[in-house]
Amino acid sequence: MSSLTDQKYAPGEHPDLPPPPGSIGVVGWLRHRLFSSVGNTILTILAFFFLYKVGNAVIFWVFTGATFTGDTQDACTQGGACWLVIGDRFHQFMYGLYPQEEYWRANIVFVLMVFAIAPLLFDKLPHRGMFLIFSALFPFAAFYLLSGGWGLETVDTANWGGMLLTLVLGITGIVASLPIGILLALGRRSNMPIVRTLCVCFIEFIRGVPLITILFMASNMLPLFLPEGVNFDKLLRALIGVALFSSAYMAEVIRGGLQAIPKGQYEGADAMGLSYWQSMRLIILPQALRIVIPGIVNTFIGLYKDTTLVSIIGLFDLLGIAQVAVADVKWRGLAPETYAFIALLFFISCFSMSRYSLWLENKLHTGHKR
Amino acid sequence: MKFGKVLFAAAAATAMSTAAQAGTLDDVKAKGFLQCGVATPLPGFAAPNAQNEWEGLDVDVCRAVGAAVFGDASKVKYTPTTSKERFTVLQAGEVDMLSRNTTWTFSRDVNLGFEFTGVNYYDGQGFMVNKSLGVSSATELDGASVCVQTGTTTELNLADYFRSKGMSYETVPVATAEEGAKVYDEGRCDVYTTDASGLYSLRSTLSAPADQIVLPEIISKEPLGPLVRHGDQQWGDISRWSLNAMIIAEELGVTSANVDEMLSSENPEILRLLGAEGNMGEQLGLDAKWAYNIVKQVGNYGESFKRNLTDSLNIERGINAQWKDGGLLYAPPMR
């Protein structure tokens, strides 16, 4: 006990003493963080009790008490979730009412999509230039494969559904909204009065109404104004509505980034003798877009989830097809299971998007990060 | 809302003037399929099964028209429509007919410019109670707590009914049918009220369906049926008589199973129906075997009802029985 204190050391030579036991390691962490006072101890115990109760119930419902094998609802007797309905209708969750013998076309599109999106997301990819050409061609290939014609059986867009439709809507909206949003944002800050007024009117009008209104107008009013027999495809109408809606929001996000760029950057670009588009492309936008990555991804995620609204105009996206499954007389009262599954699919998509944006921010941080 | 109605009526009127050109039948034949507007999934009436095929009582009317026109009940494409957009899609010509449990009312028939071509389900607002209440008639419900969906006509019908009977009640408002099922199941209300078909499908989701009874009183009229655009009488006739053929076939005992034997029946009515005699098909602009194809491929009304509503949802025929059995189904004679 006394040996350490008795020993004499030259000033400054005293060795570091080990921390008192109970203040380090797991025990120390527990004492410091969870049981530092009577009040905290009670809170900790209560919280653990609560977690235990809830966690137990969730695990019972999702796993231990759930039914995974069987053919009919009668097999679900354990009191937990009845996942059979997901298995029974899994193909519909993926493809909607797409003809079953044509699933391979949708599968090819899914695979091609990965190759088309990868070069857009990762700039270190080998042979990225070639991939980018492929990315540009992908929408046409996907449209041909999905809708058919020229040797393939035609599939009505009304039969596209499930994950397929959600991805089509989400990706089209995302891909269209960024360039349109950039143009709108630049237009709103333009010195040309007509361009500026048009952009302001468009943005403010779209932001002033809910997406559901736009979809509803596109679905219900538009056909009445068109001559009889002229039918816009319903999906196309929804796509245009979603793209316009998200680009208005995107424009405002990007305008925020543009405003954050100091005036000196604009003047510097002008002093270099760059044209307007050159200065935007080379100086302003690369900085502005980087600042607003969180805002952009936020809009993307919001848009992706908003695509569920198309189920109110009779398109069977993920949510719409969930309602179909819920309406199945073979599986009654299984709405919680169905919606939980849909929520999981959405969570995977949205969480991946947000993780990607974090990665991108880290990669691009140059002096802005704190 | 008012403005919307005016706008809709104006748009409908414009569309009507252009829709006066005849020939939906020719258009449909040229397309090679019938485009039929149905409900977004509604159990028993229209919903896609796990094989991506649409099924239901309303769907069977579409299939019947398909069978009548093409001799092939599968030549139908379905457009799921929400209750708000259903009239627009029909008016705009996106669908050739609408079979979407739509109540036949004066304003829809006259003002919106549609033509209802029959009734394939007589619905009406009813009451469901637990057997343990010991109630056998809605007139004994004085002082009951009633679950009702807010913002619907059911709410108004309920108020009218109880007021006219001089009874008091307490409303337990619910937003959706699923929520209503839960609330009722937990015993937070004594009575659940909605359209009878809804009561039956709700009952099958409850924990003890056998303990629930639907009271005999029906307090509103909701005749549901298919409709087409005004102005094309021939197409309206085809839709009307396709449904009637299903009803008449049941009345005459012709089923999908025995329709071939019935071709050599002694009964002239059956022979006329199946096209072995007379020229009914020709008068409609269809094949002589039009009704034969309906019965063969879709079945008669009773078969369709049993397949879609009785077997899965335990909906009894009730007032939807044939007139001979005390129901309301009464198709004009085919002669």
Structure notes:
The complex is a heterodimer of chains A (370) and B (335). Chain A is mostly helical. Chain A is built from 16 helices and no strands. Chain A has helices spanning 3-6, 25-33, 38-64, 84-88, 90-95, 103-121, 128-147, 162-188, 193-208, 211-225, 234-260, 263-271, 276-291, 293-306, 318-326, 335-364. In chain A, helix 9 crosses helix 11, helix 11 (234-260) runs antiparallel to helix 14 (293-306) and helix 15 runs antiparallel to helix 16 (335-364). In chain B, the strands form 3 sheets. In chain B, strands 1, 4, 5, 6, 7 and 13 form a 6-stranded mixed beta sheet that branches. In chain B, strands 10-9-11-8-12 form a 5-stranded mixed beta sheet. The longest helix of chain B is centred in the last third of the chain and has 19 residues, at 233-251. Chain A binds chain B through residues 88-89, 92, 97-100, 156, 158-159, 216, 219-221, 223-229, 231, 234, 311-314, 316, 320, 323-324, 326-330, 332-333, 335, and chain B through 11-12, 14-15, 18-19, 40-44, 47-52, 77-82, 84-85, 88-89, 91-94, 178, 181, 201, 204-205, 312-313. Chain A: It is found in: Cell inner membrane; Cell membrane. Chain A: It is a multi-pass membrane protein. Chain A: This is Amino acid ABC transporter permease.
Largest sheet descriptor of chain B = 6 strands, mixed
Portion in beta strands of chain B:
15-25%
For the CA atoms, what is the radius of gyration of chain B?
Answer: 21 Å
Percent of residues in beta strands of chain A: under 5%
Tell me roughly what share of residues is in helical segments of chain A: 55-70%
What structural category characterises the helix and strand content of chain B? alpha/beta
Query: Spans of chain B of 5+ residues with little confidence (pLDDT < 50)?
Result: 1-7, 9-20
What is this structure, in a nutshell?
The complex is a heterodimer of chains A (about 375) and B (about 325). With about 375 residues, chain A is mostly helical.
